Amino acid sequence: MKKKMSAAAKRKRLNHLLLHTGLILFAAACVYPLLRIFSVSLRPGDKLVSMDLSIIPAGATLISYTKLLGDTMFLRWLWNSLLITLATSFIGVSLASTAAYAFSRFRFPGKKVGMILLLSSQMIPAGMLILPLFLMIMKLKLMNTYLGMIIAYSVSSLPFSIWILKGYYDTIPRSLEEAALVDGTSQVGAFWRIILPLSTPALSIAFLFNFTTAWNEYLVARVVLFSSKQYTWTLGLFELQGQYITQWGMFAAGSMLVTIPVLCVFLYSSKWLISGLTLGSVKG
Amino acid sequence: MATVQFKKIIKKFGDNLVLNGVDVDIKDHEFVVIVGPSGCGKTTLLRMLAGLEEITDGEIFIDNLLVNELHPSKREIAMVFQDYALYPHMTVEENMNFALRLRKMPKKEIAARVTEAANILQLNKFLKRMPKQLSGGQRQRVAIGRAIVRKPKVFLFDEPLSNLDAKLREEMRVEIAKLYQRLNATIIYVTHDQVEAMTLAGRIVIMNHGIVQQVGSPIEVYRKPCNLFVAGFIGSPTMNLLSGRLSIADGVSVFFNESLTLPIPAFVLPQKEARDGREVVLGIRPDDVLVEHPGGEKCSSKIEGVLEVCELLGHRENLYLKVGGQRLLATVEAFFNRSPGSAVSLCLNYQNMHIFDKVTERRISE
Fold it and tell me: What is the spatial distance between Cα A230 and Cα A146, in angstroms, rounded to a whole number?
């Protein structure tokens, strides 16, 4: 019996070991590029390629960071990006949460077709949407404006957010809203007081999706924005790339700095990404 | 508290007719149980009263006020849902006082009402807990508490015990009966469980296929089912239903089929209903199939049968008998002590005999 137990325990340990080896390898593969960029950002003299494998290179300096923040409009680009991204995320999530509620709860003509259209819009490559977006924003006279960018980003991420939220609302029992209606709320009140608080995991995912998509977007920004004062960081960093020379140190320093807001948003929203919020509400 | 009236209620889902002309009057302080098989429209009727379902046609009155177009929150009703429907992100206390907070009631009054309800339902210890930290029975009590604190005109219960296990269901049934005695409220209770219906109701509304079959006190619907459906639905074990014909010989009605010939006295079947050759169904409850009984004036003559199976239930015993080609179920005192295959004599209690027309399925006996 003891022998058998120890064999099972050994197998369990081996499985653990294999699992953790795999996880460490994957983590290393993910972290390695980031460390390389960090390393480049600290190297003196814009060296991209080096035989040195150390993360903190010899003669490490923060000069790329100080030059980036002092000599370029990087902080301005960062601010532009943050403004556009936050506005996009809030508008996108607000519109998606209400639209998804309608798709989840009400019967109306064109509901099925609407959902399929939303889904099919996600199958069109982003590049194909550039021209129509450009034309629309131009006709709205919103070229080179924050508003133009916010509208373009909000509408393009809306279908995905609606699908995510609709799927989540479908799992919330209708009887909760009905109980709220009987208790004295309006339909809007039931949505606001019952459905939204229960949907924080899905809302967080939709917010994160909107945030990261808008934050990292380059193509639409390239088309809509043309004055460097209005640039987002993605366009700004490319300013550092010259025809004959690229300031790799500053480029890497910029790349490191732009990960900070996304990291913060991820860390903050992770506490909302808990499943099982509706546990205990109905017999399950 | 209040009266409730359903007048010619019709409900259609597309082409599907769910309720077909429901007319029920519920008096003040009455405990009415709506009972019927799944899909008979009982829950739909309750949801229409709550304002959660649109009315295709007809009128609903609460306290003589037409509520067809009234928002659920304005109807002064409280509903206990089948699946509890507790707000999972609120504590027990918040669940219970949610409706009162919406009405912006003074905090003192809210606290007093919640404490009162918690005392009644023994929930004081759980007020700060979340619904997921409670057992099924406790959750159901919170759902009831949420209804009590509102002091509504009408309480609606939608199969509130169907998710509980048998023991807990029994306990909660007693709790609800006690609650009714205490609140003396108008309660409309929907269930498919006839034990709940029989034990709780002041009056029972029996529904099938969207039509009200019979309305009456539990004993009325048990003793005098108005049609074949009610006869088969109410009572456990179910009533024996024997198909046959009537013949009239020397002014006496006789029920007969290939297995049985039974004179029917006039106090069971009135003369005006007795027609020669009429197709009928004879109904007799298992308790009224009297096995090895001395007989008497109110009983039929002796019938010979064969015992097929015995089922001991504790204090009672079910006997499955065969009379000719006809199967009969009899319920007798426990420990009948006869082996299957043995011959038994039995007679039928005329006093509780029911006769239905086979075509219309209506009761034709007294």
Answer: 8
